[in-house]
């Protein structure tokens, strides 16, 4: 199921955070939350995921139940995505994983946020086959899909991407505040490790 709303809509944070929380509560068997911001810092249009990761990392750095992978400093992209997911599966096997990524779409949908209740299929806009990410994912449509998608991503407004990242971060942060009290307490010593990025 997909839920969508424009990032400038005043109801966007409340609407999508509620949907995200409800999705978690249908399977509340996790002991931590992992957010994976997929993308790169090389193209402004593809920096949405890492920007969200950096914002959330600063906000939840001291929370041992929240793990952030994919920031502007240490992005998760096509070259290291598989390695990152292998690490998450090994070290955070009972985590609820939320993926965040930019995507391209029809012109009139630019600025739309999509919360999709299934794993993220990263790299589709650039015709890349990458492993699925997360139990659920948030995407922001940053520009128009076309024959030169790399160029489109290069010439996307960074201000626009940053504004959208702020909204997505607020959505995830609000949902996290609701979900954390429902997380199962960690039992294994490895789960007590301090927060870290990829």
From TrEMBL:
InterPro entries the UniProt entry points to: Pept_HybD-like_dom_sf, YyaC
One matching Pfam family: DUF1256
Domain of life: Bacteria
Keywords for this protein: Hydrolase, Protease
Any GO BP annotation: proteolysis
GO MF term (any one): peptidase activity
Alphabetized NCBIfam families for the sequence: spore_YyaC
Protein name: Spore protease YyaC
Taxonomic source organism: Paenibacillus abyssi
Origin organism lineage: Bacteria, Bacillati, Bacillota, Bacilli, Bacillales
